[in-house]
Amino acid sequence: MASASAQPAALSAEQAKVVLAEVIQAFSAPENAVRMDEARDNACNDMGKMLQFVLPVATQIQQEVIKAYGFSCDGEGVLKFARLVKSYEAQDPEIASLSGKLKALFLPPMTLPPHGPAAGGSVAAS
């Protein structure tokens, strides 16, 4: 539909590192840190509420950075950026590390409660 707006997926691995670092830095900007804290407080560590409150704020923060690199300023742009980063993760440990840091900023650590479905078996820590 809007394919006249350029091909943003043309970032090299080095450029992807720069953009990832800028996105991570944007999360530590005071106004964005406040927005994320408020969203996390509203989510109360509930995964459904994390998707409802935290993910949209995290997406907006990413959009503000990646639009300068030719990605559309919507959810589709964030998805394209995420796919691009994912394509470089296996080849570049630094990109994999930066990507992990970014995800940790808005995804809670996955912990199973003791009474969860895996409580009876062994769980491999990753």
Helix residue percentage = 55-70%
Instruction: Please indicate the percent range of residues in DSSP E strands (runs of 2 or more).
Output: under 5%
Low-confidence stretches: 1-8
Average pLDDT reading: 83
Number of helices: 5
What is the H/E string?
A: HHHHH
A few lines on this structure:
InterPro entries: P_C10. The protein has five helices and no strands.
Describe this structure in words.
This protein is mainly α and 126 residues long. The protein has one domain (11-103). 62% of the residues lie in helices and 0% in strands. The protein contains five helices and no strands. The chain has helices at 13-27, 30-43, 47-66, 75-89, 93-106. Helix 1 crosses helix 3 (47-66), helix 1 packs parallel to helix 5 and helix 3 crosses helix 4. It starts with 12 loop residues before the first helix and ends in a 20-residue tail after the last helix. Residues 1-8 have low confidence and may be disordered. This is Protein C10. It is found in: Cytoplasm. Belongs to the UPF0456 family. Pfam families: P_C10 (PF14974). Keywords: Cytoplasm.
List keywords for this structure.
about 130 residues; mainly alpha; 5 helices; about 60% helix; globular
How do the strands and helices of this protein lay out in sequence?
Elements: H1 13-27, H2 30-43, H3 47-66, H4 75-89, H5 93-106
Helix pairs in contact: 1-3, 1-5, 2-3, 3-4, 4-5
